[in-house]
Amino acid sequence: MNYSNPQLQNLLAAEYVLGLLTPRARRRFESLRDAQPALRQEQIYWEARLAALGLRLAQTSPPEAVWIRIERCITGETPAKYVRASLLDRIGFWQFVAMTAALAAITMGVLLRQVPDAGAMDYVAIVQANQGDGLWMITADMTRRQLRCKFMGGNYPILDNQDLELWLLVKGEAAPISLGVLPKQGEMMMELKPALVAKFSRAAGLAVSLEPAGGSSTGAPSGPVLFTAPPPVKT
Amino acid sequence: MIDPELLTHWLQASARGDRRAFQSLYRATSPHLFSLLLRMLKRRELAEEALQDCFVRIWQKADSYAPDRGTPLAWLMTIARYRALDLIRRKRPEVSLENDEGETLEVADDVNDNGPQGPLEASMTSQSLAELDRCLETLQDLQRQSVLLAYYEGYTHEELAEQLDKPLGTVKSWVRRGLQRLRECLEA
């Protein structure tokens, strides 16, 4: 094969990904690829495209023993650092604020993680009650001053005439600030006013309250706080 | 429930040592990886072992995933497939190709017989799946069969030639034309 022909090189990438090549041809492709970023892109192209062939197979759940063995292998490496927040169901919002220290108590699995590659000025949080419950991903783009709340799935039993409202708790400020109503489906974008942008760096936590449709009309939570999350993390 | 963004989130959290996120990732994606490993390796205990290897590796190299690698699920599937190819290549000399004969020409039917699809495919891959299917349809039967045999069985050119009882040069050139056509269709 004429290895200097780009079209043939691209086909070579496909043959490599499929596993058609002999060991010798494989090694030749690998050295070509290591020298040429475009060829590496071509390899990734085929890997991503052909993965669809694997995904069309009916799913098969592996036995639990496999996970137990995996867990054993990875234990002892980096410890888990996830944060859980407490369930503050049916208690008043102001009690919640006073109880911020109880965030570490465990009932609601609220997972909060940084997304390092999401852009230099962003914040991110994941808001969820129990596993399997409704889950929202909250991202704040400080450059474009946009807040995005994306519903990722799960159940959350509320009535048609009710909404869940997201609140930002700010250190040194008594009143929570509404970040808007969580979308029941899809995602919701909201403009962040300049005054609010500054508050993200002083956030003490997030909370979700049950409100009448459209959200609280008073500017403060009017219904019970259903669950809480640690503050959005800067990425 | 699961979309690529969430999988990416779990991968990135795993890279920082978050075992809970890693477990979520495993629960959501292992049934896909396991199916592929079973299909390629045929033997359950081999597939289970390979799945374990894959996820230990994913845990260790979760930080090497970047969005330009394709969707997180495609990246995970690629790791699984390369692991299976490694194992197949290692044991190949002992395997009699005749043993697989009854199965080889059924590949296309087999994979079209989709099982129940989870929300994972529905949300993120149904489009790319349909597109790939459509483009595979534009290939000649033997071209399509060769691609599928290579993907699911891990056959090399030589093994394809043997399986299809055609000269090596002929097989190489029709596979190449098939891939070329597939590429053009996917790009169209």
Describe this structure in words.
- The complex is a heterodimer of chains A (235) and B (188).
- Helices cover 29% and strands 25% of the residues of chain A.
- With 235 residues, chain A is of the alpha+beta class.
- A 5-stranded antiparallel β-sheet of chain A has the order 6-3-2-1-9, with no helix packed on it.
- In chain A, helix 1 (6-18) crosses helix 3 (37-55) and helix 2 crosses helix 3.
- Chain A starts with 5 loop residues before the first helix and ends with a strand.
- The relative contact order of chain A is 0.13.
- The model of chain A is unreliable at 77-120 (pLDDT under 50).
- Chain B has 188 residues and is mainly α.
- Chain B contains 11 helices and no strands.
- Classes of the chains: A alpha+beta (235), B mainly alpha (188).
- The interface between A and B is large, with 58 and 79 residues.
Features:
heterodimer, A: 235 residues, alpha+beta, 5-stranded antiparallel β-sheet, 4-stranded antiparallel β-sheet, 6 helices, 9 strands, B: 188 residues, mainly alpha, 11 helices
Could you estimate the helical fraction of the residues of chain A in percent?
25-40%
Class by alpha and beta content of chain B? mainly alpha
Q: Sheet bearing the most strands of chain A, described? A: 5 strands, antiparallel
Beta-strand portion of chain B reads under 5%
Distance between the termini of chain A: 47 Å
> What oligomeric state is this?
heterodimer
> Count of DSSP helices of chain B?
11
What's the pLDDT, averaged over the residues of chain A? 75
How would you spell out the order of helices and strands of chain B? HHHHHHHHHHH
Write down the overall mean pLDDT of chain B. 81
The number of E-state strands of chain A comes to: 9
Any idea what the shape of chain B is? globular
Structural class designation of chain A:
alpha+beta
Q: Strands across the major sheet of chain A, in which order?
A: 6-3-2-1-9
- Overall, the morphology of chain A is elongated
Give a quick account of the main beta sheet of chain B: strands, pairing sense, barrel closure: none
Distance between the termini of chain B: 31 Å
